[in-house]
Design a protein that fits this description.
The protein is α+β, with helices and mostly antiparallel strands and 341 residues long. The protein has two domains: 2-88; 110-132 and 176-340, BirA Bifunctional Protein, domain 2 (2-Layer Sandwich). Helices cover 40% and strands 19% of the residues. It has helices at residues 2-17, 22-33, 38-48, 54-81, 84-88, 110-124, 138-141, 174-182, 223-238, 291-296, 313-321, 334-337; strands spanning 128-129, 135-137, 166-168, 187-196, 208-218, 244-251, 254-263, 280-289, 305-312. The strands form two sheets. The protein has a seven-stranded mixed beta sheet, with helices on both faces. The chain starts with a helix and ends with a helix. The chain binds phenylalanine. Phenylalanine binds at residues 171, 173, 213, 251, 254, 285-287, 308-310.
């Protein structure tokens, strides 16, 4: 009996030092203190001992039982209070004075920043932001916008053709048509999105770039509204000192059409390399929505009129941030991108 008590006690010490988790504490408890555990076995053997030996061993078994109980409770309490001990075992050690490992913080992409800013300025003026598909049909990209097949103006919207009648939109203007088909005036939307043109890539051309389209249709809308909205927009984007001018232009889907220039934000209008000594920078195309476009979406051009505009986001971002190569936006070089966060 004496032998057995000692054996169980030393076995327990060993088991205890190898414990790695709360659940292991529980299995040890069952092994020693369970209904069919080692201690219960001892009590059974005690009952079979001669009467004079019982008082000798009875108290020792009881004492051992209490000790095991205490030890197990102490250990599981420790795991509960310091869960980190569980995984690495009791020997886990760490230097709390070491500096923490920092994750790299991301930052907004310069194009996203400019896109958000442009949309934000129009939202302030009551415009809603809507989007449309990048894969379009000839109808939405051309026909409904008064650009008939074989018409030379299709050349200026050189296009990536896909399967059958599908293509990658070459501007965001098809979203004007899609929106007007589904909504009645008053309409006041801006449309950010990617567009595609098979241009050879160089410092100022990319086969994919972003545009923001705008469309406002209501009763009695005139060129004065167009000029007002776009001048306010330019001043908010580039600063109150900026001047704007509207130059006559041609777009098949607007009549009359105009391009808007802003006074050069680099030289202030004196003339420099960026504005090619002209003092002006072309920023966007615009015009009054062509009656044929309204007709295609069944809006009565005698009752309603509207204006539309479209601008290139990369170009504006390049001017705003002084970036001289459009490819930098798409190369994902962190040294470039980190400068804008
Ligand atoms: N869609 C024209 C372009 O991509 C821009 C534009 C939009 C012009 C709306 C006038 C009105 O060049």
């Amino acid at each position: 009996m004496d032998e057995k008590l000692k054996c169980i006690e030393s076995g327990f010490e060993q088991d205890l030092s190898g414990l790695k988790s709360i659940s292991e504490c529980e299995s040890i408890r069952i092994k020693y203190l369970g209904r069919k555990g080692l201690i219960a076995e001892l009590f059974q053997e005690l009952a079979a001992l001669p009467a004079e030996q019982k008082p000798l061993f009875g108290p020792r078994i009881n004492a051992l039982k209490n000790k095991l109980q205490q030890e197990i409770t102490r250990k599981s309490a420790m795991f509960e209070q310091q869960p980190e001990l569980q995984a690495g075992g009791l020997t886990a050690q760490f230097d709390i004075t070491l500096p923490a490992v920092r994750g790299q913080l991301g930052a907004g992409h310069p194009l996203s920043l400019v896109l958000d800013e442009i949309c934000g300025l129009f939202i302030e003026m009551g415009f809603c932001v809507v989007e449309g598909p990048e894969i379009e049909t000839e109808y939405y990209n051309f026909e409904a916008l008064n650009i008939p097949l074989e018409h030379p103006s299709r050349e200026s919207f050189d296009t990536f053709y896909l399967h059958k009648k599908y293509l990658l939109r070459s501007h965001t203007s098809p979203v004007q048509v899609r929106y007007m088909e589904k909504h009645e005036p008053p309409i006041q939307i801006v449309v950010p999105g990617k567009v595609y043109r098979p241009d050879a890539t160089d410092a100022s051309h990319s086969f994919m770039f972003n545009q923001v389209e705008g469309l406002l249709v209501d009763k009695n809308i005139t060129l004065a509204h167009l000029k007002g909205v776009l001048s306010v927009f330019a001043k908010k984007l580039f600063g109150p000192k900026i001047k704007t001018r509207f130059r006559p232009h041609f777009f098949p889907f607007t009549e009359p059409s105009a391009e808007m220039d802003v006074s050069c934000i680099i030289c202030g209008g004196k003339g420099c390399r960026v504005c090619k000594q002209s003092g002006w920078l072309e920023i966007l195309g615009s015009g009054m929505v062509h009656p044929k476009v309204l007709k295609a979406v069944k809006i009565d051009s005698k009752e309603y009129s509207g204006f539309a505009f479209g601008m290139g986001v990369e170009r504006i971002a390049m001017l705003k941030y002084g970036v001289d190569d459009i490819r930098l936006f798409f190369e994902n070089d962190l040294r470039f991108l980190k400068q804008f966060g």
